[in-house]
Structure formats: structure tokens, C-alpha cells
Amino acid sequence: MIALQIPFLGRFNMKKNPDWKLKKIYISQIDYVSNTFNWFPGDLPECYRKSIKEDGIRLPLLVQSVKDSKFELVDGFKRLSWLRSVQKSSFDEYHLNLLPCLIIPTTFSIRDVAKIRVETLSVDINSLSGIYLCKVLKMLSEAGFSKNEIAFDLFPILGLVSSVRLVGQLLNLQKKMVIFELNAKSILPESIMSMGYEDLLPLLKFSSSDFCSVIRLAKKMDIKGKKWRNLLQVLDELIRLRETTAEEIFKFPEIKKILENSNINGPVRYRLLKQLFDSLRYPELSKMSKRFDHRSKNLKLTDRITLERDPYFEKDELALVMKFQSVNELRDHLMNLTEKVNSENLLNTWNDLFAVLHEE
Question: What's the pTM?
């Protein structure tokens, strides 16, 4: 059984109120089901697990008195969750375990406790779930925190830029997520739950009806970051230009085929879907690309030589990229290119390629 030795070490930056008490309480007295302050769930890092195994819990859990000799957990969720999962003792012995706790009096309002919770946060912004961030902001807003307080007191602790506008966007996003879960009668997919807030903000562009379709799209894709945001940007432009909906676009036979094909992985599905979105969004550009790619194949360049162009045909020039590992290979490339350039049979192909570049 893990030892629960408790030398007290100060942890909090706020000034400790004289009404607070430091004492050991039974683990059965702690309400670990309530998620009011479990803002960013996750696993306890291995280094902390090792420390608890060797020395027991040294830093007190932070709790608040409620009623019937019970306490609501405010800080220490990961430690308590892990401790409960590894306990090997009997049920009775487990519930008699004493844990070190710093007890906040019942008289503290939820707003006051939330302020304390903010000061105990230690979150890596790179692994911060946007969904959980939205839920925290909703809780703080309901507790009476203004957007200014959230932006300038909480955001710096999380490594975010102090932006009142961002607070408003995330609160609006939380409302949309709640509506989705109510209407869809299902929880958000893991793909959405794991995204950072930057990947979720583009969802605000979509109407309530399109919102559900885009959430379902996320479930099909195995991407996040810039690729996900770019995909949503093109989808939003398609919806506006065609005056249609995301649901109708996803019904296009070629798009439906990509989304329903279970034999392709996320990255491949993204590439195929992005190509289709681009061709629908930029039909003329798509036609030019197809003509250029078709004619460039007539050059029959080796795999180690590629002919590149401006993706938007804004420049009337081409670039040759050669890969070689020796002088001999370079010489072979140059000889091959000389033949391609001087060949009478390929002259029309070169002219056709430049003609595509000069199209208005």
C-alpha cells in the first residue's frame, strides 16, 4: 500500500486566510465526483507518480468544506484519481486512508474559490483542450467574472494573449457546443475534444445547421492544426459562394465517396477532400492545374526531376528541382534536360506549358 506521509510544503501564491485549516481527512470524505473545479482532466505525469510511491503525498490537496463532514475537491484531481486507481487495500482500509488537505471554509463563495483555483493552475498550453477551456470560461462567467478579468487574470496564467475578444469567441463556441450535444443527443467526438482552441475557433463561421455537419466531418478526419483550419476555410467559402449548406456539399457523390471510404486513412482522406474542395472553390484554377499537369507528363521527366509552378498561376515562370547524390547523377540530369529542351517533338509541349502560364 502507498504510504501517505505528509510534510507540508507551501504551494499557493495567494495569501492564506487564517480561517483555512491544514489537517488530514479521510479519503471517503472527499467528493471526487464533482467536476466543478476539475478544469483540465488528464493523467498524472510519471515523475509525480514516482514521487508519491516513494514519499507519499507531500503537497496537500485543496478542498472546501461543504456539508455533512464532506469536502469538495478544488485542486489535486490527478493525484487523487491516480491514488484511487492504484490502491491495493481492501475497501474498508482504503476509505480509512488519511490525506493531507488544506481546507477552505464554507463561507467562501464559488467566485472566491474559483480565484484560488486559477492561482493553482499549471497547464501546458500546447496540450490544452479547447473544449475544456471553453467550459472553464463558462463556469467563471457564471460565477460573476467579467471578460476583462478572464482575459487579463486567467489567460496569462495559461500562456494565452490577453484578449477580451477571444474570451467572447470562446464563450460563444461553448454555447454552440452545448446546443450540439442537446440536438445531436451525443457527446462530442474525441477528435474535437483533443483539439486546441485555435482549431475550434473556425467552427464559429458555420450556422447552427452546418455546425453538426462539420463536427461529424472532424470525426471522419485524423487531422488538426493548420490543415484542419485550411479545410474549414475553403468549406466556408464554398458554402457562401454556392449559397448552400455543408450537408448538401457532403452529399456530392465524389465527396461522399471519400468520406465513407473506410479503407483510407485520415491524411489521405484530407488530401483527396482538400483537392476536391479546391476544385469546387476555384474551378478555373483547377482546370488550369489539370491542363498543366497533363501536359507536363508528356516531358517524361525522371522521378528525381520535378517541374514546379506557382500554385495560383500568378507568376509566368517555372522552376526545375533536381535531386542528385553525385556529380555523375547531376551530369545525367543535365544531359537528359538538354535532350528535352532541344527535342523538336517536345517543342509544342513546352509552348503549351508556357501558354497555360500566360492565360488570363
Answer: 0.70
